[in-house]
Automatic annotation (TrEMBL):
Residues 317-491 form the DUF1023 domain. Keywords: Coiled coil. Residues 129-156 form a coiled coil. The keyword Flavoprotein does not apply. It comes from the Bacteria. This is DUF1023 domain-containing protein. The keyword Coiled coil applies. InterPro entries: AB_hydrolase_fold, DUF1023.
Amino acid sequence: MVTWGEAKRWNPAVLQEAVGAINAGYNKLVACSDDLRDITTPEGWHGEAAGAAAVEVNQIIDGLEEYAADIAALRRAAGDTGDAITGVRNGVREAETIASGNHFTIAADGAVIDNGMPEVPPEQEQLVAEERARLAEELKDRVEQVLRQATDIDDDLCAVLGRIEAGNVIDATGNDNENTSLAAAGNSGAVNGALSVLTPPPVGADPSMNAAWWAALSESQRKQLIAQHPDWVGNRDGVKAVDRSSANLNLLEQQKRGFTAELERLRREDGDSDEIARLEERVKAIDSITGMMHDPDGSLNPNRQLMSLDLTGDHPKAAIANGDVDTAQHVAVFTPGMNSTVDGNMRGYVDDLDGVARSAERMLATQGGGSVATITWIGYEPSTLDDPASLVGLATAENVDVGGDKLAKFDQGINASRPTDPHLTALGHSQGSIVTGISLTHAGTGVDDAVVFGSPGVANHFGTDNTAHDLKVPDGHAYNITAEGDAVARYVPETWRYGRAPYAMEGMNQLSADAEVGADGAPLAASYGHSEYTKTMPGEVDSTSKHNIAAVVAGMPQLTVAAR
């Protein structure tokens, strides 16, 4: 077992430099192939001596073929190991950066040492203590995954060296020496000299463990997994957004081919109509996602990231980002409510949230600038009811509980995938605000601000008299917006309550959705009803609710307009 202290000292340069010398020797050897073919059939030589010479030559050729395979295996193993060590070094670097930036130390044996909590206001002590406990677990996960990768590399290299030492890389005795090729033998040896790529943590692993696994892989290993095992990568919270997106785009193509082929078979054989309808919905969702991820000319939109793709369950699910989630200083995750579908209204949500990001960046530009990414997350199965009044049936809906747990991990994964945390805002509309509220009862989501709008409540337990302090965000960083004419937000909490009504919740900042004037003197339009909160109004005028959401996303609450 490799120790943390040993892994910190690993240096890929030694092996990377050795590859050049090994390759030079290999090239000299394979250049002898033509000469070997010539001496296997000496022209005009017959008899017992010629036969004995041929046997000796064949043995030499077999030995050289095996030698070529040995050298090629060594070259491949040295190159793969040197490459893989770059991943180990990256994993070590990220873990050490997180530790030193948060008053932790990682000892030579891998133990995580807490050097003490910084001074914070008394009311923040519990939240900070929970965050430090989460950080300690994350660092333990990172140490574990780095050492798992290092041990895997060490075991693989030792296995290759053992095969070379035992002469078991290839068996050349069955080759046709009349047409021998040392290069072909070398190719076989190179295959046997390849290192494995570390398999991911179990399904359902904490995002910090997934992040640690991904960080400890080299860039070439990541590309290999994205190409060969996109299903391991695309929905794994904690993996970098750009890599999740690449994997999910590969998976999107694979899934469409599979669904289309199955559809054609079922239609040809007059198959089950329900299954045909299910597959048709999947293909429609794939086409919709493909459209959202590409520009009108068919090129991939560089401003979009496909952060999750789940075509199982009752309905397709996905998460699409505007901007670069891996580098943006401010990231917002928006969870829409009932009747939301990937192939229906998701495109409108994505476009609206792009508008929120642009408004937030305009605000940041007045203070020196800043980058924003927004994510539309339909990672749960929203209820689909024709009559919103029947929200009574959602009071104990399992989908919001499951969705809240999944959303908490998704948020955790954004922070875990980055060496430095972004300013993270949770946005929830309608039933999505219930999912958001449940997610924020989990410790360590990394959410700094939360805004709910059109919300019937932020709890899933009937009659719960909760407060904004129950949400695990800093005090004073939870906001509610209720528009005039929004029956869901105005009346549902008074009939079937998902916790205390957000418009009357202790500790919840109330923001305006009325026509107002912004801090810069620009007019802001009113939003009305249940579905206009993130809309840009006619004349390219921001609504007050959109302005307020953007101000919180930008980390500039001083620009919000309070409700009257």
